[in-house]
Amino acid sequence: MWSLVQGKFIDPNGEEFVRTFVRSPGAVGVVALVGEKGSRKVVLVRQYRPPLGITTLEIPAGMRDLEGEAPELTARRELEEEAGLIAGSMINLGRHIAAPGISNSSVDLFLATDLKETKTDRHGPEEEFMTIELIEFEKCMAMIKSGEIVDGKTVIGLLQVVLLADTYI
């Protein structure tokens, strides 16, 4: 899924140079909102992240690990697997690139509303022990400001929803 790649590139002056970078299939993240406009809560997952050695609060997310699967379908699958939710409405919030100097990895973000509960289908130790939390949207903003929510895709996804506040929050 992930691979370390060494490639040759040409700079604007025509000079060749070599760089090593991480190639990734990309990922998706879903800002899932429950409740009525004016009192929305965000579905977040709390899970242990071994590379960091900490537990983080994040939007449901996952790798685009099924070749040829459209980002929205991956987002719907991850929302169902991790949070046990099916979205009636899924809006594309755009794509962001977290570390363009070292990786081609991108994250496609979506806003999910009109949610229905279903069974979770978690895989691996991180997902097996994750918990679901419903947190008021305004409290999420305070948690970003205080540094309690530090995951990049989560911060970007929530702030993108702020841009749509008149319609969704």
From TrEMBL:
<dbReference type="GO" id="GO:0016787">
    <property type="term" value="F:hydrolase activity"/>
</dbReference>
<dbReference type="GO" id="GO:0019693">
    <property type="term" value="P:ribose phosphate metabolic process"/>
</dbReference>
<dbReference type="GO" id="GO:0006753">
    <property type="term" value="P:nucleoside phosphate metabolic process"/>
</dbReference>
<keyword id="KW-0378">Hydrolase</keyword>
<dbReference type="InterPro" id="IPR000086">
    <property type="entry name" value="NUDIX_hydrolase_dom"/>
</dbReference>
<dbReference type="InterPro" id="IPR015797">
    <property type="entry name" value="NUDIX_hydrolase-like_dom_sf"/>
</dbReference>
<dbReference type="Pfam" id="PF00293">
    <property type="entry name" value="NUDIX"/>
</dbReference>
<feature type="domain" description="Nudix hydrolase">
    <location>
        <begin position="23"/>
        <end position="157"/>
    </location>
</feature>
<protein>
    <submittedName>
        <fullName>Unannotated protein</fullName>
    </submittedName>
</protein>
